[in-house]
Amino acid sequence: MQLNVLYGCDDNYAPYTGVSLLSLFENNKDIEEITIYLAAMNFSEVNLSKFRRLAEQYGRKLVVLDTERAQEYMKTYQCKGWNGSLATWLRFFVLEQIPEDVNRLLWIDSDTIVNGSLRDLIEIPLEGYPVAAVCDSVCYWERFRLGIAKSEPYFNAGVILFNLPVWQGNDVLGKMMEHLEKYVQYYKANDQDLLNDFFKGQILKLPMRYNLQGFQLGYPIRTYFSVYHWDESAYYTQDEAQSAVAQPCIIHFFRFLGDYPWQQGKNYHPVRERYLRWQARSPWKEHPGAPKRTDAVFKVEKFLYRLLPKKCFLHLFAWFTNRKVPKVPVDIRARENIK
User: Given its phi and psi angles, is residue 289 left (phi above 0), alpha (psi -120 to 50 degrees) or beta?
Assistant: First the structure.
């Protein structure tokens, strides 16, 4: 069995990506062959050498991809950054460098911990779908910007399983680039909007355990579902969510109250201790993490989180994050009358 994984980040996120990679190697010793494709954007030689030593330590293959062409794509399409970096777009722009004999490619975000074996995931029947992903945990109304109704799923781009033969046989990459050129100006969630807009109706829904988002670990499942009234066809049942929380395979951090697990200062992230344990085992164990957030809005958010009951706080959070999103789906194509 062979597992092909794509990671991508800039040098600032290299330590966090490395911690994720360590957890993947350690929890997937049951897989015979693992090849890591690393889209190393503006990496220092120090970080790159740590990745190479880590792969060598576990007897795995590391292929470093050239990101210069990808960065040219980002400029051409005027892609917007996320948290000050354009690296989030790498998952799509480096696909042309993946060898043609690779059938399945698993993209994993940097802010993750692989908590179990990926063997079952890479054996999931893809049934002709070009991509497979897990639904997003917080973008309840965000979908409406893209014309995605409440009864339709909106997916998180943190973990994507690519069915590359479908891409190669239908020029999916070329068509996606043409689509991006027309609509990138409307995207607020960047590559995640591209995933949901271009591939609408063509995304296989994966079990939640393959992208359990840290937000779902911060609140009881019943509380979460009482605030976010998901249509089961567009999301998961409470039982499915509870099962994923009990046995997560990939844990995707997200910011929680403005912080990632590696943020300095008072940090309430539900995955912080788990992340720090993995970091302590990694070649980046001395990395200090990111400076604490001093933004006023996050200070208020943390104060209210401590003050209010969890359900009340979650209602307030959901209202604040979704207050400007229209309640009726608006297809972005209608804005230019493009058919």
Answer: left
